[in-house]
Amino acid sequence: MRTIGKVLVLAVVTLMAACTSQKEPAENAVAKLEASLNSIRTDAQQYAAEQLQTVEASVTRLKEDLAKKDYGAVMQTSPSVARDIESLKSATETAKSDAEAMLAAAQSEWNELTASVPPMVEKLQARVDQLAKTRKYPKGMDKAAFEAAKTSFETLKTEWSDAGAEFASGQAANAVRKGRGAKARAEGLINQLEVQV
User: Fold this and answer.
1) For residue 29, which phi and psi values (nearest 5 degrees)?
2) pTM assigned to the model
3) pLDDT tens across 151-189, in order?
4) For residue 137, what are the CA distances in angstroms to 74, 124, 130, 153, 171?
5) Do 70 and 113 fall within a single domain?
6) How far, CA to CA in Å, does 52 sit from each of 15, 42, 95, 121?
7) Are residues 86 and 121 in the same domain?
């Protein structure tokens, strides 16, 4: 009996030592994973939100295992979670880089639009004012067609104003789309009203 008791005590002591020896590495692993996730959280929320939620759920499960003192589960699962965090970091960096490239392209196109559309609007305004005053419309245009062109010109000015407001509010892609529409409308009106460019 004494031998069985000694063996049982020795097994319990060994088990406790094994649990204690895994506690610190498990705590360190969870802390490192949390720190790694926190370092990319802000960008990930913006550029990879769904993937972030999945990774956060994995980290939460690790923390729950740690709280239950299931250090073996923590040590077994943490490498997989670390890979998930690296994947999230890579996806976030790629999405952020793509967004920055798109913004740079939109900025460049917006600069081109702001260089070309306002002069067109000025020339169109002068031509509309001239035609309204003289009532000498371009060949094939009557008063009704001229009124329709004037309405289209007012729409153009509104579109351009809206595009500028969107760009100012940081919505460069939307601003460029509206700016393209305004430019196309201006070009059509220039042809229709026979504006000298």
Assistant:
1) -65, -45
2) 0.65
3) 999 999 999 999 999 999 989 889 999 999 999 999 999
4) 81, 14, 10, 15, 39
5) no
6) 36, 10, 13, 46
7) no
